[in-house]
Amino acid sequence: MKISYHGHSVVKIQTGGKTILIDPFITGNELTDLTASEEKPDAILLTHAHNDHVGDTVDIAKSSGAVVVAPVELANYLGGQGLDAVGMNLGGAKEFEFGKVKFTKAFHSSSYTAEDGEVIYGGMPAGILFEAEGKTVYHAGDTEVFGDMEIIGKRHSIDLAFVPIGDFFTMGPEDAAYAVELINPKTAVPIHYNTFPPIKQDPEQFKQAVKQAEVQIMEPGDSIDL
């Protein structure tokens, strides 16, 4: 399994000949190395409805035929846009041909702003547990630290965790380091920082605060093999 990071919260997983994109905010993301029109994933997984996470989902899914897996209210909206969308909810898991997806808690908000300014309710925000090839990847989505992260860590042996550190909209470096202690992954990667002025952070601060897991600071385009 190859996992690559592409700025903000964009993660790509390649496994078993399939490609999965998580939160493909590409257009308007100055940190990404990707071009939306060139992405042809088999699946897109979404943590919540904010525009900087849904991103280019509609265009990419229409051009590639990717199935979109998202919290149910967001999936219902995207299904209305002509996408093949599967709606799930917190605690639910499903085996797909590309791997197993399970949605977890995240404490945040979730709404999508359409081009005409309409604000669409996106349901509960979520984290995502992805399992394939005997490995588990956790994408925490946008969230604060919360005690049930310890349950997530105890119930799942997490090989790689992506956690937001930007502060302002999510937890900052110190809270994110404590979240890693609760999640107990083998490796942690900071995400959701430096994209916009309010979330400017030094990831080294997060790395130095984490004591019991390896921290890998990934630049856009960097990858990890599990």
Automatic annotation (TrEMBL):
Keyword Hydrolase in annotation: yes
Any GO MF annotation of the entry: hydrolase activity
Keyword flag Hydrolase: yes
InterPro entries, sorted: Metallo-B-lactamas, RibonucZ/Hydroxyglut_hydro, UPF0173, UPF0173_UPF0282_UlaG_hydrolase
Keyword line: Hydrolase
Domain Metallo-beta-lactamase: 7-192
Family: Belongs to the UPF0173 family.
Protein name as it appears in the record: UPF0173 metal-dependent hydrolase AUC31_03525
Organism expressing this protein natively: Planococcus rifietoensis
